[in-house]
Write a structure and sequence with these properties.
By secondary structure, the protein is an alpha+beta fold. It contains 6 helices and 16 strands.
C-alpha cells in the first residue's frame, strides 16, 4: 500500500447549490483499487458545522472572525491571572453529558484545568473542568442552531453561562443583538443586564454588550476592554509622549 499526497474533490450531487463548499470542507482518506491512498476534499453539510470533526475547515465571514478574535483576546487578557482558567476559540469540545455530541463553540471558558495542552478536542470529563462560559456568533446559516438547538445542548452540558452575539440578526433589526443566559436548575434563564442594557456575566464580573455597530466586553467598573490593535496604538502614543518629555527634560537640564 502506498500513500499519495494527491488531493481531489469528491463528487458532488447535482442537487447541491452552485457552491457546494459554502459551509467548509474536510479531507477524507480513500484507498484506490491500486492500493494508493488519496485524500478527497468533501464539502461540509450544515449538520457537520453543528457537530464538527477534528480537521474540518468551516467557512466564516471576516466580521465573524474579527468579533471572535476580539472576544477571545479580551477574555484571555482579563482572566489571565487564574492559572486554572483556559479560554479557547474554535476548538472542538467533548462534553461529559451522556449522549451529547461534541460541539465547536466560537469561544469557551473553562475553569479547573490543571495542565495546558495543545487541544484539538477538549474533553471536559478527562480534564476535570467546569464550563464557565460559551459565546456563539450567529451566521445566516447557523442562526437557528445557535438560538434554539444549542440552548438545549449547552444546558445539558451544564454550561454556566451562554451568550449569543446575534450578528446575523442585524439584517432584520439593523443592529447586533447580544443575548445572555444563566444556568439555573438545569435550564437557561435570561441573564440580568445593567442600566445600559449590557449582559452581566458571572465570569470575571464582566459585561458584554453593543456600542453602535460593535460588540464590546466591559470590566466590572463599566470600562470597555479594547482590542489588541487599540491597546497597541495607545501604548505607542504613551511611549511617544514619554520620549517627548524625556527630550524636554534633557533640554531643560542643558540650559540650567
Amino acid at each position: 500500500m502506498t500513500v499519495s499526497s494527491a488531493v481531489s474533490a469528491a463528487p458532488v450531487a447535482p442537487a447541491e447549490q452552485a457552491d457546494p463548499f459554502r459551509y467548509g470542507w474536510r479531507y477524507v482518506r480513500r484507498e484506490l483499487p491500486s492500493g494508493q491512498l488519496v485524500f478527497e476534499q468533501h464539502p461540509l453539510t450544515l449538520d457537520d458545522v453543528h457537530y464538527p470533526q477534528e480537521g474540518d475547515f468551516i467557512v466564516h465571514s471576516s466580521e465573524h472572525e474579527r468579533i471572535r478574535n476580539y472576544l477571545y483576546d479580551a477574555l484571555r487578557a482579563h482572566l489571565r491571572a487564574d492559572p486554572e482558567v483556559v479560554v479557547l476559540a474554535d476548538v472542538r469540545v467533548a462534553w461529559s453529558a451522556p449522549g451529547l455530541r461534541p460541539l465547536g463553540p466560537d469561544v469557551v471558558v473553562f475553569s479547573g484545568v490543571r495542565q495546558r495542552r495543545d487541544w484539538t478536542t477538549f474533553d471536559v470529563a478527562a480534564e476535570g473542568a467546569q464550563t464557565l462560559l460559551v459565546v456563539e456568533i450567529t451566521s445566516p446559516e447557523t442562526r437557528h442552531i445557535d438560538l434554539v438547538d444549542k440552548v438545549d445542548e449547552y444546558a445539558a452540558a451544564e454550561v454556566a453561562e451562554y451568550v449569543i452575539v446575534d450578528l446575523a440578526g442585524r439584517r432584520r433589526s439593523g443592529q447586533i443583538v447580544v443575548r445572555g443566559y444563566r444556568l439555573q436548575d438545569g435550564a437557561f434563564l435570561e441573564a440580568p443586564r445593567d442600566a445600559d442594557g449590557r449582559v452581566l456575566l458571572q465570569v470575571g464580573s464582566l459585561r458584554i454588550g453593543t456600542t453602535g455597530e460593535d460588540v464590546l466586553i466591559f470590566d466590572a467598573q463599566g470600562h470597555p476592554i479594547g482590542d489588541y490593535l487599540e491597546v497597541e496604538a495607545r501604548l505607542r502614543d504613551a511611549e511617544a509622549r514619554i520620549r517627548e518629555l524625556e527630550e524636554r527634560l534633557k533640554r531643560a537640564e542643558g540650559q540650567a
